Amino acid sequence: MTQSAPLAVTMGEPAGVGGELTLKAWVGRARSGRPFFTIDDPARLQALARSIGLDVPVKEIGRPSDAAAVFASALPVVPVRLRASVRAGQPDPTNAPATIEAIERATAMALAGEIAGFATNPIQK
């Protein structure tokens, strides 16, 4: 891990508050702070941002090292596609594999030294 490695945030339960937390964290980002990216479904985040009235551009990235170049102007997202549409407050087991995949990918990135660390948004247990 380098001193400038980004942080990662996993999607959490797609029907929960994790997406809002991630979007609001990007809106409140500090210009001099460490960049972060999320491992999530970009379409879900774009729709959620619109529905809660946040102006958050979303940009897909291929690897963690791409986050720094995008962070100032858009929320960087390593894509994990959901299998079913999301209804707030109504978890769908069909989307559980995406939640697990996001955590597994963040873990692999941490073990490989590609990220400084990661946080998981709340998950349905």
Q: In what range is the share of β-strand residues?
A: 15-25%
CATH C-level name = Alpha Beta
CATH superfamily: Isopropylmalate Dehydrogenase
Q: How many strands, which pairing sense, and closed or not: the largest β-sheet?
A: 5 strands, parallel
Written description of the protein model:
This protein has four helices and five strands; from the N terminus they run βαβαβαβαβ. It has one domain: Isopropylmalate Dehydrogenase (3-Layer(aba) Sandwich), CATH 3.40.718.10. Strand 1, helix 1 and strand 2 form a beta-alpha-beta unit. The mean pLDDT is 94. With 125 residues, the chain is α/β, with parallel strands linked by helices. A five-stranded parallel β-sheet has the order 3-4-2-1-5, with helices on both faces. The chain is 33% helix and 17% strand.
Care to give the gist of this entry?
The chain is of the alpha/beta class and 125 residues long. It is 33% helix and 17% strand.
Question: Could you outline the blueprint of secondary structure elements for this entry?
Answer:
Elements: E1 7-10, H1 18-27, E2 36-40, H2 42-51, E3 58-60, H3 67-71, E4 75-79, H4 96-111, E5 117-120
Parallel strand pairs: 1-2, 1-5, 2-4, 3-4
List keywords for this structure.
single chain, 125 residues, five-stranded parallel β-sheet, 4 helices, 5 strands
